[in-house]
Amino acid sequence: MNNNLKTWRFAYDNDNQIKRVLLGWQTATTYLYNEKNTPNNYEEVLVFDNEKKACITKPLKIIITEFKNIDENLSKLEEDDFVNWQQTHINYFKSVNPNFDKNTKVVFKIFEVKENLIEKRLELARKITEANQDIFGNISKIEEVNAGFNNSIFDVNDTFIIKVCDNIEKEKLFDTEANFYNSNKDDNNIPTLYKFDKSKSVIPYVYEIIEKVNGKTVYYHWYKMNEQEREKLIQKIVKILQKVHLKNYPEYNWSENIKNKILDSFNQTTDMFSEEEKDIILKSLDKYDEILSNNKFSLIHNDLHFDNILIDNNKNIKLIDFNDSIIAPFDYDLRLLYMSAETPWKWANIEMDPYQKPEDYKHLFEYIKKYYKELNNIKYLDERMLVYRILDDFKLLPRFRETEAKDRILLNSKKLLKKLK
Q1: Residue 366 φ/ψ, nearest 5 degrees
Q2: How far apart, in Å, do the first and last CA atoms of the chain sit?
Q3: Residues 161, 153: contact at Cβ < 8 Å?
Q4: Which of 58, 5, 72, 66 is CA-nearest to residue 33?
Q5: Based on the domain organization, do 374 and 404 belong to the same domain?
Q6: 88: nearest Cα among 113, 75, 47
Q7: Is position 363 within any domain?
Q8: pLDDT tens-digit profile of 369-391?
Q9: Residue 329 and residue 148: Cα distance in Å, rounded?
């Protein structure tokens, strides 16, 4: 495949519309016409929301016309389907352009699928299952799981997960994940790692075979729970984390590590801050050595949020997705749960995002501190969580340059200075 091909997405409900394309139910799309961006008839790659490439498409016909001129004959849809298609587009176009009406010019494309890239990835999974029949047994189903930004993920028989690292630059993350599995292989709350193969003898990529957890993430349960149920769940999660964090690891300069990361992002975004704001950030940085001292280093998950904590069909709790694990102070593993009180939707999937409300999370960190008693021995625990919040916002600031993130950085820097007066 030509990696230089341009990518495109549907303007709304992208992933579901891609499924329709791959089934042959949808062969057309439309978008608002802009004279500066004239449409082309080149091959393009249709991608899922998580950046995975779905298929290569090529326009068969491109029409620039008023929206009112598109009818069911042109769109090749049945009348009932066309009415729904038309109304959905009208609603979407009005949301992005309040002046939109049926006389507004649009680009209408009829396209065909030139290559199904999911099928190409499934061939990798088939080769893996053929080479590991002792693990899989009889194969009745192999499906791609539409998750993961750096990996191709497959469900085999609703029992196994295959993860393929088809981004060679991310192979070290697989080493990290395998290390986490092996370090916790006797823990029933961690899925079983059946195989980690970096030989590239079966396929030209590193892959692993993992136990599939059949269940749903905590996000699917939390918004339905009462406070008593939430507290009980956090108590169980804390107990699991205490086992994961039990083993001590060699120390390193944690404060210097955090400061360097923040300063790197700060130096890339200084134009976003006034001189007074820069001074606030630098003064707060001077407090980090005191705040981030006296650490117990553990092997931590490092991406611990409710989308990586599953409750299986037997109500057992399982942690998943360990390719970001690192050796760090154990409290650092709890920072995303701390941040959930402010932005609970940030780590939720698209389906669960609308159900996450800050009021449902206001006691979350209280429960964590109540049951993870070692946290109460950390002198500056609340201040450390503010530092981690600042770090999280700074990580993304050079890329997205969001005013909201900048404002949070300043607010939390001021909070730190106030607390340490």
Answers
A1: -60, -45
A2: 59
A3: yes
A4: 66
A5: yes
A6: 75
A7: yes
A8: 999 999 999 999 999 999 999 99
A9: 26
